[in-house]
Design a protein that fits this description.
Length: 464
């Protein structure tokens, strides 16, 4: 066998080896670069490279079409035939796939399908690293310590099918997390940013933000559990609405299992969920949040189907002007439910038409309110209402008549993001944000801050 090593060659050779009715091959070429620091000094850095190959075989039978999926890393040319045969054996040994559909065809090929994969490396930090060093110096002179990490990944995905698809997508993903602590470690503040290339992040501005929060925390105020007017920053809004998106499968709603199910049958599509003109949408071409413009499914699930690989994605409004507009569907679940095909897209934007920044929303606060930094350890309590619980982290601050007057204790919360949208009294300016809880899985988000008149802090937490 001739030696093949380029990603597109791996895909083509795997397709040539197929003996089943259909084959989908996904080659993911990964590269990453990272920096880590502690106590105002870099500690580690590294660069990695890798390849993952996923082969999806389909076999037509009298009772339906079966599929078999096998994924392996570090695949070489010699590994190809055993991998294809393993996927084919898995398909022949499986029963008919419930989500079976004809493989996608007729999508124009990507012009760069045969090009070498895009790669990242330490050079992505060429401007960021010196700026981070300057932030270390300022933090040191200001009596605070900076901890955190910067990570940049670039994945080139090559998708080929026996129906003729030859698609390619390069996905850069960058995250920056910065934590500032007082020297005695009693005060802590966090900030995070998403980025595609580390050219739009400013360590100095983030350090200044954290320094202010540490100053706020010099005064400590203990508050009991209860319902408080609360300003949710964009990162917290993102964490809540990403979970809502993950819970919005149309089939589950039609079958009466989710918050989007209509009592007595059907779904809540068309129902007003928010009095504010909120629009929750995904768009693979959203500026700064670009994601794959076609389905890339390594496995099937509630919101994805391997049979949909290569299906073009279009801008989708999940909520439009406060009304529930779409629930996620595959081609299979769309046919089952009678709803439009609306696959999940790897970004999420909430726009409420607001113009105020979070700082301006704080200044406009009358009476008392809480200002959160972020949420973590979010878990589902009740899928029927999408009730979630979790903890606040790295700073909850008390606002009185437009001024932050001190830091309060952390809380456990119990809230449903769907219910929060119905109670939000103000949405601020939409901006790109990094989810704190889901940042390892979902980084492309833009959200406004939300003002909630009665956010449920169900108990006091000892967390930091």
């Amino acid at each position: 066998m001739s030696r093949v090593s380029k990603p597109y060659e791996i895909v083509e050779r795997a397709l040539e080896l197929s003996t089943t009715d259909g084959l989908v091959v996904i080659a993911d070429e990964h590269s990453s670069a990272n920096l880590r620091w502690a106590g105002n000094a870099l500690t580690t850095n590294g660069v990695t490279r890798g390849r993952t190959l996923t082969v999806i075989a389909t076999v037509d039978g009298a009772e339906g079409t079966a599929s078999g999926v096998v994924s392996r890393s570090a695949v070489t040319a010699d590994d190809l035939e055993p991998l294809v045969r393993a996927a084919e054996a898995a398909a022949r040994g499986a029963g008919p796939a419930e989500d079976a559909q004809p493989l996608v065809s007729g999508v124009p090929s990507s012009p760069d399908f045969t090009d070498a994969p895009a790669e990242t490396g330490s050079e992505v930090f060429a401007d960021f690293a010196p700026a981070l060093g300057d932030a270390f110096a300022r933090a040191r002179s200001g009596g605070r310590e900076l901890y955190g990490f910067a990570n940049h990944e670039l994945t080139s995905t090559y998708l080929g099918t026996s129906t003729g698809l030859r698609l390619r997508h390069d996905q850069p993903t960058g995250t920056l997390e910065l934590n500032a602590k007082s020297p005695d470690r009693t005060r802590s503040a966090w900030a995070g940013r998403p980025t595609r290339d580390f050219k739009d992040v400013d360590p100095a501005a983030m350090d200044a933000e954290l320094a202010q929060r540490l100053r706020w925390a010099e005064r400590r105020i203990d508050l009991p559990a209860g319902r408080y007017e609360t300003l949710l920053p964009p990162t917290a809004v993102a964490d809540l609405l990403i979970y809502q998106l993950w819970s919005s499968a149309a089939r589950d709603a039609v079958e009466g299992r989710t918050v989007f199910s209509q009592p007595g049958g059907g779904t809540r599509l068309g129902e007003t969920l928010a009095p504010l003109p909120l629009t929750l949408r995904s768009d693979p071409h959203a500026p700064g949040l670009e994601s794959a413009p076609f389905v890339i499914a390594h496995s099937s699930g509630d919101s994805a189907s391997v049979f949909d690989n290569g299906l073009p994605l279009a801008p989708t409004d999940w909520i439009r002007d406060g009304k529930l507009e779409r629930l996620t569907t595959t081609r299979h679940s769309a046919a089952l439910t009678g709803l439009p095909v609306a696959p999940a897209i790897d970004n999420l934007v909430l726009d409420g038409g607001g113009e105020r920044s979070l700082e301006e929303m704080v200044a406009a606060t009358t009476g008392r309110a809480l200002l959160l930094t972020c949420l973590w350890y979010i878990r589902e309590v009740d899928p029927a209402t999408l009730l979630l619980t979790g903890l606040t982290r790295d700073g909850v601050y008390l606002v009185e008549d437009g001024q932050v007057v001190g830091e309060v204790n952390n809380f456990r919360f119990n809230e449903s993001p769907v219910d929060l949208l119905s109670r939000a009294s103000e949405a601020g300016r939409t901006e790109k944000t990094l989810p704190r809880e889901w940042g390892d899985w979902f980084t492309r988000a833009a959200m406004p801050a939300l003002r909630i008149p009665d956010f449920n802090m169900s108990s006091v937490s000892q967390g930091v």
